[in-house]
Write a structure and sequence with these properties.
With 380 residues, this protein is of the alpha/beta class. It has 14 helices and 13 strands. Bound molecules: ligand GMT.
Length: 380
Amino acid sequence: MKIGIVCYPTFGGSGVVATELGKALAKEDHQVHFITYSQPTRLDFFNQNLFYHEVTIRNYPLFDYAPYELALASKMVDVVKHEKLDLLHVHYAIPHASAAYMAKQILKSEGINIPVITTLHGTDITLVGKDASYEPVVTFSINASDSVTSVSEDLKKDTYEHFDITKEIEVIPNFIDLERFKKQKKEHFKKAICPDGEMLLVHTSNFRKVKHVDDVVRVFHNLRKEIPAKLLLVGDGPERTNIEALCRELGDCEDIRFLGKLEAVEEVLSVADLFLMPSEKESFGLAALEAMACEVPVISTNAGGIPELNIQGKTGFLSEVGDIEDMTKNALHILDKKNLPTFKHNALERAKEFDITNILPLYEDLYFRTLTKNRELQES
Ligand code: GMT
């Protein structure tokens, strides 16, 4: 198949899922064309089946806001026509699903029929999409897609609850490449960070408010009153300055390290004992899955789709959003040397269920079904 993938090329989960999906499809001999405004972060190598088409946005002094959606739709038209794509798979509804609708209509006027699959990732529904300034367009473009997927049952439920959706939404969860995300031998690294055998806690995110990184720091503050521990914070974003200020206020700076945006996050996860995800919203929680694949149990909230991944008392624990005391208590339970090996083992076993080799066929099957349905509609 010749597949066009549209996504955000940044470090965000939706971009990671889209890029890893494209790479896996290319390995299966599909031809994959990425259409984005810059090279996706995890697409920095050559593969004969992978192509990258950059969306260039011409600005003009008249525009206060450059019309990205138009440039994207025009690029989709161009790529579909010249590369003879079979389908477009767009990740994140805003503005990819509506741009794809526009491209589809333009192509239709030229006698080309291109099916569009939209994957909902979370904030495109739970935060941004619900806003009145976007809602009608989001509703319309979801309903106008040929197929729609969401990354969890919870996100599917949320989408039906908050939008007037007439389309069937299929759940295809996030996945993990266990060949890349696995516990590596990095003892020297652990020794450098935890010279006296301290427990190592890790959090990775884009440091947006919704991630509650302050709760990570507060749990760590409480926990280290009981046991020696260190905390690594991976990622960067708008809340970072506030978090640094909080660390200073609590007097924990010397045991907390900010690592910034790291590409090889699996190396850090390989030496971690516990992962913290205190998010207020999380459609799935890909960062937690990456941790689990590296044998790291998870302390999380019970928000959104996280309970579909993290299993209470088995792979970790789930608390109400903001319940620092419960999270601290649970973290201490997991880090107890009698319990930790079992939690680590369970985390890996659970992660295996989301191995890309199990999830990729679900997308391929959806592509074939969408193409067949589309063809039948054309013929009728
Ligand atoms: O978590 C973020 O803020 C990034 C966001 C994105 O859209 O890139 O991630 C969302 O999509 C991921 C991949 O499907 C999910 O694993 C994350 O849970 C989801 N984030 C939220 O719902 C907040």
